[in-house]
Every structure is written in C-alpha cells, then in structure tokens.
Amino acid sequence: MRPKLSLFFLIGCLSFFASAGQPLPKVSAGKIIRMEHFKSAYAGERIIDIWLPDGYSDTVKYAVLYMHDGQMLFDSATTWNKQSWNMAATATQLMLSGKVRPFIVVGIWNSGVNRHPDYFPQLPYELFLNRTEQDTVSAQLKMTGRSNGRFKPQSDNYLRFLATELKPFIDTTYSVLPQREHTFIAGSSMGGLISLYAVCEYPEVFGGAACLSTHWPGSFTAHNNPFPLAMMLYMQERLPDAKTHKLYFDYGDQTLDALYPTLQTNADSIMKISGYDSNNWITKYFPGDDHSERSWSKRLAIPLEFLLSTKK
C-alpha cells in the first residue's frame, strides 16, 4: 500500500526554515542559547539552538547530542505543524532519574529549500547509482518539489560544516567532552538518514546515531526507486566498527512510515552481517505510529537512554 502524503506535510517540510529574529523556544527545564548567524564556509549561514540543562556548570563535563531540524525540537508553539520533540522535558527527566549522563543538545536549523540536498547521502547517490538511476531519483524529487532540475546532494558539505566548523566551536565554547564516545547525532526522516551517513563518514567524530523513521527511500515512493539499494550497498562498505559505535533505528507504519518496514528489514540484515548486536544496535517497530514529531516525541527516551546510558 502506498502511504498518503498530505499536501500540508509536503509544504510544511519546505517551510521549516524561518528567518532570524524568531522568538526563542520556551522550555520546561534548562535554557536555550541561540546563535542567529552561525557562518559556514560549506553550508551557508545557520541558526543554532543550544539547550543547556538545569544546573549547567563549567565544573561538569557534558556529552553532546547534535540534532537536525533544530527548529522542531523544543516548543510546539514555534513550529510549522504545532508539534515538537519535547526534547527539554524528556532529557531532563532522564538525567534526573540517573538513566543518562549529563548532556547538552545542539539543534541545527535546516535551511528550508536546501533541506533535502543537505540531508540526502551523497556518496550512495554518486557512487552506486548510474546516470539513468540518478535521473529517476531526480524526477521523483522534482514531482514533490524537492528539486527544480537535476538533483544534486550536498550532504558532504553539510557534514563538513558539522564536523569541522560547528563541533570545534561547541568543544571550545562549552564544558563538553569532545571525544567520539561522548558525541552523538540524531534526527528523523531525512534527518535519520543523514545521521546514519554522518556516523559512516565521520566515525572518528560521532560515536553513535539515533535514526528515527529513517527515510530509506530518499524520494517519496518505493516504486521504481533505485536509491534504497544504493544506500544498502553503501552501508555494507562503510558502516563503522560495531565495537566503538552505536546505532538506533525505529519506524511506524502510518503515513510516510508505511514505506519503511521492508526497507528497515533489509538494513537490519546488513547490521547483523556487519557485526552489530543488542549491545550496540537497536531497531524498534511502533505499530500505529505515524511520521510526525508527535510520534517521535513519544519514543524519544528510548534512543536517548540507549546512546547516553550511564551503564557501562
């Protein structure tokens, strides 16, 4: 069955980016520090929202969770669909209960019309698709407004921005642990796909990723779509060492998530072949969940505890 994509969903994804000067998200705990104009030589100017937990202190060293679609994380009153991840409340509850170590969240706002090129894994597209297959994906993305002409991913530059510009700034400005084992990345949909790609391309930087409702198709159809196979072939070659990394995946079965069950099963097979087990990999299925911040918020505590657990 092909999932129904509402026009509201499609327009909303393209309308994520708001101009500078938007009010700070209101959070139930901790505080938000905003950088309105973080400049990048690779990815243009970005808005960055940094969440610091209650009691943040320079005498404590914190882990860091980098998250895509940063404008959707904290306050439903400021988002296009009036939903959010409710990140501050969930993170605070987990820290107070001792289930996770202290951490901060770095929310990177997406760039609106360039969101799809930024989040679309570049090497699988360029190395594992021939010209005809690339044209097929380009046509599929053009139909949904993600591309005006021939589609060109720019995720390698987006990741360079994260790894070589943003992370060094965070490491030198805040009281954080810079090592890989304390540095994680997370997102949903295309944000889940780019989180996986980030760990594969920068295994020395990121120790794990949470990929919620991972958008394996890349475009918005499973029919005549060569990209999922390209992504699987890439994973076979580039998944990071299971001994030093953690990967979390999940999916529902409603709306856009209806595309994912078979593709996630294929990805899980590659995870097993690559040496991942329950110590360093989780895939969870949530029947009835749809493709929305409401669903991701409900299950956010699971990947946070998996990546940032206080247990050795």
N-to-C span: 42 Å
Percent range of helical residues: 25-40%
Which structural class best describes the helix and strand composition? alpha/beta
Which architecture per CATH?
A: 3-Layer(aba) Sandwich
Beta content: 15-25%
Using DSSP, what is the number of strands? 8
Side by side, the strands of the main sheet go 1-2-4-3-5-6-7-8
Number of helices: 11
Looking at CATH, which topology would you report?
Rossmann fold
Q: What is the overall silhouette? A: globular
The number of distinct structural domains comes to 1
Give the ordered list of helices and strands. Answer: HEEEHEHHHHEHEHEHEHH
Features:
312 residues, 37% helix, 8 strands, Rossmann fold, 11 helices, eight-stranded mixed beta sheet, globular, single chain
Q: What features would you describe in this structure?
A:
There is one protein chain. The protein has a single domain (7-308), classed as Rossmann fold. α8 (227-238) runs parallel beside α9 (261-273). The protein is built from eleven helices and eight strands. The protein has helices spanning 7-14, 87-96, 115-119, 122-128, 131-143, 155-173, 190-201, 227-238, 261-273, 293-299, 301-308, and strands at 31-38, 46-52, 63-67, 103-108, 183-188, 208-212, 246-251, 281-285. It has 312 residues and is of the alpha/beta class. The longest helix is centred in the middle third of the chain and has 19 residues, at 155-173.
